[in-house]
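Bench log. Compound arrived from synthesis this morning; before running ITC I wanted a structural hypothesis for how calcium ion sits in the protein. Inputs:
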Amino acid sequence: MEKNKEIARIFEKMADMLEFLGDNPYRINTYRRVAEVLSELGEDVEDLVRTGKIHQIHGIGESSIEKILEYLHTGKISLYEELRQKVPEDLLELLEVPGVGIKTLRLAYDRLKVRSKDDFIRAVKSGQLAFLPGMGEKKIQNILRGLELWEKSKERMTLLQAYELGKTLLKHFEEVKDFFENIQLAGSLRRRKETVGDIDLLVSAEKQHWGELHRHFVNYPGAKEVLLYGETKSSIVTQEGRQVDFRTVEPIQWGAALQYFTGSKEHNVRIRDIARAMGLKISEYGVFKADSGEWIGGKTEEEVYNLIGMDWIPPELRENAGEIELALERKLPRLVELRDIKGDFHMHSNWSDGINSLEEMVEACYRLSYQYIVIGDHSQSSRVANGLDPAKYREQFKLIERLREHYEPLGFYILRGCEVDILPDGSLDLPDDLLEEFDFVVASIHSRFNQDNTYRILKAMENPFVNLIGHPTGKAYGTREGYPLDLDKVIQMARETNTALELNTHRADLSPEKVRKCMEAGVTIAIVTDAHSVKHLSYMELGVGLARRGWAVPELVLNTRDISGVREFVESKRRLMLSRKV
Ligand code: DGT
Ligand code: CA
Ligand code: CA
Ligand code: ZN
């Protein structure tokens, strides 16, 4: 899939460059769409070309296919090479900055002779930019704040980025799987921390193979630079500028090493203190008697924890936030696991802004061995997302009806759903008589991210047909912090109205701390992928990790219920709210 990524990046850049040059908007959108389709399709572009299937893909036209072929044959796209002569590429990197758009960059280029990223940053900070037309004080403040966030987000990657990179690394090591026993991604990625500094990859193998393994590691095709190339430890920097640390240990040291390199540091410090008080010493090499230095264990993580009188602790909890005390009393809760998940409540098809067809989404979920899914295309107010009006939803119901005939006998249920917009006054974007026809309704805010939106969410929850609040805090990974919100009030209302709150895997919203608050209040959450393509459906694993980091237990995760449990959840709210009305 490395090629998909490379080509998508070039199409994205060509679109930006053409927009910068004031080219035809139709052409620009076409290239953007190609980039999106390629990076989210989940199928290797080289395979698509080989089988000819590329010609059937919605969103990739013939002239784009020519460019893709050109890249696959020559490693270059000539249009892109031409554009690079005309547009300062480095300047366009700033489009990642929240608040900076092409218009602003073009203006700075024309009026202030800004030619590079650094030129632009200087122009903002020196106040020069403020003199340009349309650049009010507020806009400049926004850009400054955006630059700050952007610089910070460059230092650490999002969990999603780390997860993807981690998967690619694991795949790279499949080629040498005969040389090692165990492999694991450790560090903050294993703990499912929302941002990850660097990736820590750990392998156990017989010493004679270590040389080969380190050679394989530094030859990772995505590596840009080798920082360290050793016998036990090597480090690389990837093309995207991310560091990966790689370590080899002996099989007998596996558990102790994994425990050590998973962290967190704070957790490990406590663990070591407890061991010391028992006359033991724990290091990355094993558990030893402090006086004699005799090795007494460490082949598995369980062994390490058991030797100091506690239960094994799930990595997501290892932050010294109460988990050690509970493990000592052997009272840790049983956390939700991926295998508990029976369905997904929020996904989009190409009826609104998804990449794949509804049929493809359904089939993919069936293959994940789910018991049910909710199709949740956007409603009419979300124009940019190609939202559906009531007639369109009813048309979609007919398609769902047909698909049910095939899938229900297989024990797989397709629920009619939507992601209905919560409008600025808190009312919903679809009429109640339609909402009632859905099997499950997600309601979300997609506008006015700068204001306190508590009242909108509270009002939406009072609707008897709303079952889940989508991405409740409006937060997005890395770039957006979310709107001001009184979470306690939202939690209280969720409990009073039998409404669930969403943990959206794409945005890490709710965040783990907020999940923990829901758990303490006994409020049900639903872990959703908000998938816009088949590929995104696999992020459920990550969502479960974030939920676990928020101490989520299966009883309070809606996806652990079977189909009748979900139906009962919906019915009970309708009964409850209607009984209140009379
Ligand atoms: P990151 O990469 O900043 O997101 O966070 P981590 O937790 O992955 O930290 P990293 O990569 O520096 O180290 C990986 C693990 O190795 C860390 O979680 C715990 C362990 N470790 C590293 N340095 C130390 C140390 O000085 N003392 C102790 N006790 N553990 C350490
Ligand atoms: Ca790390
Ligand atoms: Ca590290
Ligand atoms: Zn949404």
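What the model suggests: Residues 338-581 form a domain with the TIM Barrel fold (CATH 3.20.20.140). The longest strand covers residues 413-421.
ITC booked for Thursday regardless.
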